[in-house]
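Researcher: We're teaching a course module on how sequence relates to structure. For the next exercise, students receive a sequence and then see the predicted structure as C-alpha cells, so they can try to spot secondary structure elements on their own. Here is the exercise chain.
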Amino acid sequence: MHIPVLEWKVRKVCDAASKVGQIENGSERCNRHIEALLALALTGQVPDEVREIDILGVVQEVVKENAPYITSKGIEVRHGGELGKVIADDMHMVQLFSNLLSNAVKYNDSDDPVVEVDYEGRDKSGAHHYRIKDNGSGILVPSTGLRTRHSGRAGPITSGG
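Model: And here is the predicted structure for the students to work with:
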C-alpha cells in the first residue's frame, strides 16, 4: 500500500472516531435530558430538587445544543451580559428557554435575523423577568389585518435567590 493512501485512510479513521465521540457526547446529554423530563412528567412538574441556576449558562447551553439549526437559519443570538440566577430545577429552566428561543428562531423571517435575550431584573415580589425578542415581521392578526410584535416574556420566575 502506498504511504499517501495509508495516510488518507488513517485521517478518515480519525475523523470518524472524532464524529463518534461527538455523537456519544450528544446522546449522553440527550439521555440526561430525557430522564429528567420523564421524572418531571411523573411528578406532575414538581421538581425533586432545586438549586441556584445561572440563566446565562442555560441560554448558552440551549444555543449550543441548537447551533446547527440556528446557524442554518443565519440567526445571531445575543444576550445582555449577565442574565441573573434563579432558584429552580435546571431542567425546567433548560426547557423554558429552549421553548422560547426555538420559537424566536423558528418564526424569525428577517433578512438579517437576530434573537435577543435580556434580563429585566426582579420585581417587588422577587420574581425575575426576562425578555426574548426577535427582529422578525411579527404575527398577522386575521381579524384586523394588522401585524403585531409580541415579545416572548419568560417571567415572572419566582425565586428564593
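Model: If you want an answer key for the exercise: Strands lie at 51-54, 76-79, 85-88, 114-122, 127-134, 139-141, 146-148, 152-158. The chain has two domains: 1-46, 48-158.
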